[in-house]
Write a structure and sequence with these properties.
This protein is α/β, with parallel strands linked by helices. The chain has two domains: 2-94 and 208-262, Rossmann fold (3-Layer(aba) Sandwich), CATH 3.40.50; 98-205, 3-Layer(aba) Sandwich (Rossmann fold), CATH 3.40.50. It is 39% helix and 17% strand. It contains ten helices and eleven strands. The protein has helices at 13-22, 44-59, 71-85, 98-103, 120-129, 143-148, 152-164, 184-192, 208-218, 252-258, and strands at residues 2-6, 27-32, 65-68, 90-92, 108-112, 135-139, 172-175, 203-205, 232-237, 240-242, 261-262. Strands 1, 2, 3, 4, 9, 10 and 11 form a seven-stranded mixed beta sheet that branches. Strands 6-5-7-8 form a four-stranded parallel beta sheet. Helix 5 (120-129) links the parallel strand 5 (108-112) and strand 6 (135-139). Helix 1 (13-22) packs across helix 10. It starts with a strand and ends with a strand.
């Protein structure tokens, strides 16, 4: 079984690690776009072209499924990618986990990129899935780039700025950018530092586990976390064979993937 994941950079690591934990025997292909990153500032048409090229590069290696592990690419490019690859390859998009977050009750904050925050796309998700919950949209300028470059000081600055915009009594935080799941502990520390005495612990809702489980369902596979760890790892850098970026190894998810046998 081979599952591919795509993103402009290392935002695909959380979902890839989630697949690896569910199926240690699955071969993984990571297809990203160092030549074209970041995708966020691009026009929708330009972004769609870049994302489609990354998806087609992955498709040449014949995976059974492709996870679009990027919220921005899912918003703009998912229809084009599905039109190009399905039904031969199952394509799974990534959307913020607003519905399960709202189901827990209490105030909800959605941390997302400035381009996504306040967008018609995110407002539509809130309207359709928040079930009347009180939702605060929190823009996080610079956070994805700081995570991408594994710059802890820049991460802390961006996280602190976003935490200051988050209500103190928020119960649930939706991580609306796949990069943010790599620094969940730093986000929690920043929110706790604002003083939450007497309040229940914050619950985070990312997308990695959900999209990993959905990818297995789409290919008819069951989770088998005890399977032999025989899965290989391949990396495409703007279509060229390569290796995991050094910055990826700064995160636990990257180190988990880096321990896999290389593909031959």
């Amino acid at each position: 079984m081979k599952i591919a994941l795509m993103d402009s950079g290392i935002g695909l690591l959380p979902a890839a690690a989630a697949v690896r934990r569910l199926r240690p025997d699955a071969d993984l292909l990571l297809s990203n776009d160092p030549d074209g990153m970041p995708w966020g500032p691009r026009t929708p048409e330009d972004l769609t072209g870049r994302a489609l090229a990354v998806a087609l590069a992955a498709a040449e290696h014949r995976p059974q499924a492709l996870i679009v592990a990027c919220n921005t690419a899912t918003v703009h490019a998912l229809p084009a990618i599905r039109a190009a690859l399905e039904p031969d390859i199952a394509v799974i998009g990534t959307v913020p986990a607003i519905k399960p977050a709202a189901a827990g009750g209490g105030k909800v904050a959605i941390w997302a990129t400035p381009a996504t925050t306040g967008s018609a796309y995110q407002r539509g998700l809130i309207r359709d899935f928040a079930d009347g919950a009180e939702v605060t949209e929190v823009p996080c300028p610079g956070l994805a780039d700081a995570v991408e470059h594994a710059d802890p000081e820049a991460v802390d600055r961006a996280v602190a700025a976003a935490a200051a915009l988050t209500p103190r009594d928020v119960r649930t935080v939706v991580l609306g950018c796949t990069h943010y799941e790599l620094v969940e502990e730093r986000i929690l520390a920043a929110l706790d530092a604002r003083g939450r005495a007497g309040l229940p612990p914050i619950v985070f809702h990312g997308s990695a586990d959900a999209v990993a489980a959905q990818a297995l369902r789409r290919v008819g596979a069951e989770p088998a976390p005890a399977a032999a760890p025989t899965g290989t790892l391949s990396v495409l850098l703007s279509g060229r064979p390569g290796a995991l970026p050094a910055t990826a190894l700064g995160y636990a998810e990257g180190r988990l993937l880096g321990a896999a046998a290389p593909a031959h």
